[in-house]
Amino acid sequence: MQPLDIALPDAAGALRVLRFGDGDNLVVAAHGITASAMSFAAVARALPADWSLLAVDLRGRGGSDQAPGPFGIDRHAADLAVVASQFGTPMVLAGQSLGAYVALRAAARFPELFTRLVLIDGGLPLPVPEGADPDAVLEATVGPAVARLKMTYPSEAAYVEFFQAHPALSAAWNDDLTAYVRYDAVGEPGAIRSRVNPEAVYTDGRDLLVNAASFGDDLAALTIPATLLYAPRGMFGQEPGLLAQPVVDHWTAATALTAHLIADCNHYTILTDPKPAEAVARAIVGDE
Fold first, then answer.
1. What one-character DSSP code corresponds to residue 128?
2. What is the pLDDT of residues 255-282, one digit of tens each?
3. I need a surface site. Which of 14, 50, 184, 207 has the fewest CB within 10 A?
4. Is domain 4-130+211-285 in CATH 3.40.50.1820, yes or no?
5. Burial of 44 (0-12, 13-18, 19+ CB in 10 A)
6. Distance (Å, rounded) from C-alpha 108 to C-alpha 222?
């Protein structure tokens, strides 16, 4: 499925949206912290023909890599509201990883724009050790990703090979992942690099840590139906997943959130493998 690349008006901050499909039923989706709109290709393919998926390149990523800051969850959530308003509302709202927190904030702040919220392996407040230095935690968690963003590669093919060796992706590589990596690649031969803005990654990552409690407030404030889909394996393909079961249990008991564990996937392949992607598509349509 070849998406339609759309540039929103300048008032939206030079954001870009990839539209998958031409159906009248709409879902707007937000990706992970170093990802892009192309991460939703498999999910879009699994949607019924009368649906379209509007995958937003968040500020500082993909086709929105030149969109100016400030970054942070509030700014991205406001951008999602702009996208929803531009394309017609109300619509379904979805987000994965960082995008789940962005989608949650948008649903809490702009509920009139959305009919349903689908959180994909994210959106729950992540416990931060008491007394921990947020910047030290940030460096430990997103530091390696930022280091990767500063690396260069001799060719797009070499950049693809780098991703193919990732322990969470190597056993599940497919054409969608190749297209995803090539979409992220910029630069001249001999100096290919990611087009993700490291400043955006640090700013958004710090926001997730320092303001973790605010996402609990957002969950409690939701007025639209919300579903969490979560993976049993984490960012390196290992167990446990990013969202520990006690954390999931706490928030499903404390709020109206419903949750479903999606079998046989990790933090990334929950979107990119066909079978988990079908489960995400069913949740978007409302058939979970």
1. -
2. 999 999 999 999 999 999 999 999 999 9
3. 50
4. yes
5. buried
6. 5
